Amino acid sequence: MPDVKGKVYPVYDNKFKIGTKGENSPDADMVIIANLTNFAPSVEGNVDEWDPMEAEGWGEAMMTGKKLGFSFTGKRTYGDPGNDYIAGLAWKSGNDVVSKFEWEMPSGAKVSCACIVNVTTPGGGDSNTTDALEFEIKCKGKPTFTAAEQVPSA
């Protein structure tokens, strides 16, 4: 068996918080969003490509920007502050859908950003299932990444 020097974690160890008072939410108003069942982060790079003559037909490229986003699916949970806040944004636009977002990874690392919340499914489903809640988080500008604290090895 190979000597593995790391850990794996179950997906449910990820935590997602939203600021229920919008973009200027104090830490006290950052709440976990209940009953999320799936998430998919997406990093999109903006790459500028060109073909300089001196490269004899070989191309050059430079990453000039990035975008971070997430898609979530879950269950509509009435009475949960995070779930209610997200679902309530389905009927709003502009600055009314700007908030604060935080992703805490199982390692303890965190990503936080100002964000746009785009609710794509505020409820619904088959008659014999539970209400759905689906939404996207689009980071506004550069997110803040905080590395996990390193634990000294024994």
CATH class: Few Secondary Structures
Largest sheet: 7 strands, antiparallel
Q: Please, how many helices?
A: 1
Total beta-strand segments:
7
Identify the CATH architecture.
Answer: Irregular
Unreliable residue runs: none
Structure in words:
It is a single chain. This protein is mainly β. The chain has one domain (11-146): Irregular (Factor Xa Inhibitor). It is 5% helix and 47% strand. It contains 1 helix and 7 strands. It has a 7-stranded antiparallel β-sheet with strand order 2-1-5-6-7-4-3, with helices on one face. A hairpin with a 5-residue loop joins β5 and β6. The model has no long low-confidence stretch (mean pLDDT 93). This is Phage tail protein.
Briefly summarize what is shown.
This protein is mainly beta and 154 residues long. It contains one helix and seven strands; from the N terminus they run ββββαβββ.
Key descriptive features of the protein:
1 helix, Factor Xa Inhibitor, 154 residues, mainly beta
